[in-house]
Amino acid sequence: MTERETEIQSKLSIIRQSLENAQAGAVRLRGTDWFAWATAGGSNTVLLAQETGIAEVLVTANDQWVLTDEIEAARLRNEELTPTIGLQVFPWEDPGQRETFVDAIADGKSVLSDRPQGSEQGLPTELIAQKRILMPSEINRYRKVGRLAAAAMTEVMLAAQPGWSEYELAGAGAEAMWARGLHPALTLAAGERRVLAYRHPVPSEQSLDGYAMLVFCARKYGLYANLTRFVSFRKLSSVQSAQHRQIMEIEAAGLAATQEGKTLDRVYRALADAYAARGWREAIKAHHQGGTTGYLSREIVATPATKDLITVPQAFAWNPSVPGVKVEDTFLLDKHGELDNLTYDAVWPGVTVHDRTRPWPMER
Questions:
Q1: pTM, full prediction
Q2: Which domains are seen in the chain, by residue range?
Q3: How confident is the model at residue 87 (pLDDT cuts 50, 70, 90)?
């Protein structure tokens, strides 16, 4: 049995335990995140903007299938699924046939789903929690995604020019991601004026001028690598340098608080205290600070009331910011309690902050 097939069997056992606990008849997994999780990296995505895809996973106590239509079946079988996963194919023009099949399989019992419809029920909390704990084979895939995303970012920022528009920077980012097999799930780009004005600068026709930010949420195997980088086409001012250093100090407080057994609100408070200590008490309210990541760009966003426990191995992406300055990478908290930067690129200029290399703006 391959590593991927072993992972799928482990996840089927987890799903079936939840089925038994809930005394339900079936589990339907429709979301792009859950499909990738259950198939160990398969994709049901065609339209990137949708949370659900062109196929779903159906699991019962004794069987499992991927349900899809005739348009998608051959490609899924050849490119996305292992031979051990059965495929049930239905006419695209008659979706009712799929529902009739599921009803028969459930045999009058309840159906659980990540995106419940009709009389379906949501997934149990213990199953949702399991999705956020990474298996060794998932970690191996995640490391690859992180390396590819970081390399794409470095390539683009080395090529960027001050005369480019934000559209061109974002487009180059998307091209670099696609060239590496990454879905450009999010590409934010801003030049000097708009990076000071907005935390989520959707690209515009504005010129980059002397300073620019690029943000990636890059997806492969269903896993998200999240990172932010800056390029400056002149020497950074003393004010900019000081702000970048301070935001990294704030991030360091959040990273230090990211410990197994602690709750996510503890990390939020550590970040809030670090902002306040540097005179930016209100800055934390201008943008979320990040949280856990994995099969969603943020599985859980940390707030002052988030009591979810930090477990291992689990991935995190914190993104403290003030106007014009931000820091973000994707970290794995491993079973030893160490944080490993999955989106680190040795080519990118770095500075040491609390014994950890952090990305400095690329001064060109």
A1: 0.97
A2: 3-130 (3.40.350.10), 136-363 (3.90.230.10)
A3: very high
